[in-house]
Amino acid sequence: MNELTLTVLGNATPYPTRDNPCSGYLVTNGDTRVWMDAGTGTLGPLQHHTGLAELTAIWISHAHADHTADLLTAYYALRYADIDRDPLPLYCPPGLADRLANFLTNGPERSPVESAFAIHELHDGHQVQLGELTLTSRAVDHGIPAFGVRVESPEASLVFSGDTAACPALTELASGCDLLLCEAESDQRPADEPPVHHTPEDAGETAQAAGARRLLLTHLGRSVSPDDAVTRAAARFAGPVEFAEPGSHITV
């Protein structure tokens, strides 16, 4: 039996702290290894666990830099360094390849992003099989094209919210999951504009409504302490609540 495991590479926002990169996670199941979000600074700790040559795929929730910036350095590694492999499958929101190319192009010819990454654009309901893992993506509410993902192995299920306000699509995606990895960047619901993030209370309510077995809080706003976030979420969710400590390794 291959265990489904989650390693927290980092979860700071909107920029890294001294000890915590931005959003990035490694999901493993046997020989299948998926880098979920490639936020600033996550390529370094990723290499404690696997190299780019051994990765099965990268999955990106949305195009904000604290979830994508290390794709730029991964491009240089894949193109010009010591990595020998076919283009790395990259599952990402529409248009992300062109955004990368716009940044990387330094002359009259477009940077050959597709020579480093095999681009697969996500859509609501997108599904892909990677080894024994099934990844199902749903469009969520973040003000830009953004996705959550359900990762299912034969034995367990993990749902990652990406960045989003509480929304029916995420609740449906997380229905009955073993572990909900949910962001809680907002300290409180904005009064004068549509929400684009969960509060800790929202995360608890989403987990409760979905019937998730466990809730793991991540990507906290810088004004929210992990202990406070866990306490606030636990008031809305009957199951276990923990903080996704950077560097932690969780069996789902």
From TrEMBL:
Q: Which InterPro entries does this chain map to?
A: Metallo-B-lactamas, RibonucZ/Hydroxyglut_hydro
Domain of life, per UniProt, equals: Bacteria
Question: What GO molecular function terms would the record report?
Answer: 3'-tRNA processing endoribonuclease activity
The Metallo-beta-lactamase domain is annotated at: 21-219
SMART domains attached here?
A: Lactamase_B
Q: What is this protein called?
A: Ribonuclease BN (tRNA processing enzyme)
Q: Can you name the source organism? A: Crossiella cryophila
